[in-house]
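Supplementary notes for students who missed Thursday's class. We covered one full example, reproduced here. Read the sequence, then the structure, then the short commentary at the end.
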Amino acid sequence: MSALDRSSSMFASGRPAPITDTLRGLARAFANRRQLDHLRDLSDRGLADIGLMRLDLDFARRAPLGVDPTRRLASVARERAHS
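Structure (token representation):
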């Protein structure tokens, strides 16, 4: 079996190759990072309505490039809701 046959068999099984999963995750993280700019346009009151503060946006922005910042925001909002 050649390398080409092995890679195509991974897609035929219905499970994408791990590299595809990684690339999708990175693309999602970068797209969500761009969405942080839209959240910055909200007022402090609007952010509070969704359980966030302006400092939370800065915290999420400091995440490493491959990390999805929305996961950090969701975590912060959950923690704040439970405390």
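Commentary. The chain has five helices and no strands. The chain has a mean pLDDT of 80. If anything here is unclear, bring it to office hours.
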